[in-house]
Amino acid sequence: MKISAWFKARMRSYGPFVLLLLLLLAGWETAARIGGVPGYILPAPSAVWAALREHAPLLLGTHLPATLTEALLGFALAAVSGTLLGAGMHMFRPLEKALYPLLIVSQTIPMIALSPVFILWFGYSLWSKLAVVLLTSFFPVVVGTFDGLRSGGDMYRELLLTLGAGRRQLLLKTQIPMALPAYFSGLKLCIVYCVVGATIGEWLGGGKGLGYYSRRMAGNLQSAEMFAAILLLALLGMGLFLIIALTERLILKKRGLLS
Q1: Which residues have CB under 8 Å from 77's CB, separation 6+?
Q2: Residue 43: strand, helix, or coil
Q3: Residues 83 and 9 placed together within one structural domain of the fold
Q4: Neighbouring C-beta atoms of residue 10, cutoff 10 Å
């Protein structure tokens, strides 16, 4: 009964999305089958599925693990560095004034222009891809940490100050707990950007990964195989996002910040 109720609740929430997705796939398949769109430009979903099944050992055994490794390592680096930078800027105002403009500038530079620099510095190694992932994804964590700590718990802060609380107690008792929603929003953006950054790094230089595979397939006009890699990238990003979202829900619910 509980499983049935859970399923019905999910269908009420996501039923319109599922219906729209099915309609889009049906229209796409129909257009491809009647010759409305050339197959080398936009293959039918059935052709993409067939390519995914045919190349599953290569895609799932070699390229997907490579991209996942880059994304997870980049996420770890981005989460740690972004958290430390955001907390440091909150606690030390001169650091905020010095770093915040520089962080914004770092996000205005096109990654396609910086990737050759990383390849020059690190070669076609894992480190060049991690540099791309880090620069692509750490900014949301910095902003989420900084804004969450700055705006969280003003009322509780005044109460604790009245009771004689110090800065450390304020940070642990009010600012960090109240900053968690903004912080997790930054993490959810970060994990998605990590997949994007890993793909960009593989496109520009590498010997394995879904980005490398899709670039090679595009060069050979094997569009079904290219879309199969894109499908796996989309599923990878969605899966990692859901893991962070579920972790957020569990932590916020445990702390009483979510009903």
Answers
A1: 130, 133, 134, 138
A2: coil
A3: no
A4: 11
Which CATH number characterizes residue 117's domain? 1.10.3720.10
In a domain? residue 259: no
Length of the chain: 259
CB 179 within 8 A of CB 145: yes
Instruction: State the CB neighbour count (10 A cutoff) for residue 249.
Output: 12
**Domain span at 208:** 43-254
Question: Within this chain, do residues 123 and 244 fall inside the same structural domain, yes or no?
Answer: yes
Q: Which pTM does this prediction carry? A: 0.84
Amino acid present at 117: V
pLDDT per residue, tens digit, the chain (259 aa), is 455 665 566 667 777 878 888 898 888 888 888 876 777 788 889 989 999 999 999 999 889 999 999 999 999 999 999 999 998 888 888 888 888 888 888 888 877 777 778 877 887 788 888 888 998 899 999 999 988 888 755 555 555 556 555 566 666 667 777 788 889 999 999 999 999 999 988 887 777 889 889 988 888 888 889 999 999 999 999 999 999 999 988 888 876 666 5
